[in-house]
Specification:
The strands form two sheets. The chain has a four-stranded antiparallel sheet with strand order 4-3-6-5. Strands 2-1-7 form a three-stranded antiparallel sheet. The protein has helices at residues 4-19, 42-55, 64-85, 96-108, 115-124, 129-150, 158-168, 189-206, 208-215, 237-244, 278-308, and strands spanning 31-35, 38-41, 173-184, 226-231, 255-257, 260-273, 311-313. Helix 3 packs across helix 6 and helix 4 (96-108) packs across helix 6 (129-150). By secondary structure, the chain is of the alpha+beta class. The chain is 55% helix and 15% strand.
Length: 314
Amino acid sequence: MLRASKIKLSIIVIFTLILNIQNLNAFENKILFKIDNEIITTIDIYEEIKFLKVFNPEINSLSDVELFEISKNSLIKDKIKKIEIMKFVKELKIDDKFLLKLIKRKYSKLNINSIKDFEKYLKKENLSIEFVKEKFIIELMWNDLIYQKFNKKVVIDKERIKKEISQNSQKKFQKEYLISEIVFNVANKDEFNNKYQKILLDIEKVGFKKTALIHSNSDSATNGGLIGWVKEVNLNKNLKKVISELKPGQFSKPVRTSSGFIIIKIDEEKEYVSKFNLADKIDEIIRFKTNEQLNQFSNMYLNKLKKNLIIYGL
């Protein structure tokens, strides 16, 4: 178990580190947490904070305590994923074409146009490209592991999809939403009430994006909870109903899912002209619903692994 006094001591160490960035090399690299054979050190926390700031500049305004918690939780998730991945492979390695594709997707969101410019940007931010690549490799290998483990459990009702498409095929204009999420898990009603109140307070205090970074256990958390643009026709019935009651800028109450609870926020809304092609539309919805279910399996599996591991605070 993690002792409160040791956690406080770890936070003090990180505060000192953050406040003395210029003299980082002068500090002893202390072990803060141990998960199985993996460790998290003061330098790991420091590097993780830099990584998160690169892809989420808005977190610069968070307090040191919040930055510590976000980076600690992010590192713990990566370590748990790495431990599980290494049960099936000898090393963290993936085909360069898949890695470069993910890197391009990541740097494009920062309005960077090439891998060379991205590397320059990381150097400017004093962040190692190898550190970033390893995090992306873990992300890709974890996604592959989840697919191999759960793809046969994905349930898609193709006939229902056809029926829903046919009902909407007459609409020339279709809706599309820019969606963000906060996903969380609790053990009981009291824990739910406490967690939900903390989330509401933080949304009011620092906004939805930063609250997602602090509280969400979904992989989207490192991107401020952003899922991206989602077509209304791709949404399941429950979420479609929830979203239909929201206006841009509003967020929902917690909605129960198979992997916990989700709070949905509508960032933007727009209409697009529907170019109807039944086969293409079916394929698009199947891909979306498959990814949606795999993400739920991912959250469930990660939570299960976390419960079965002992995290030592040193």
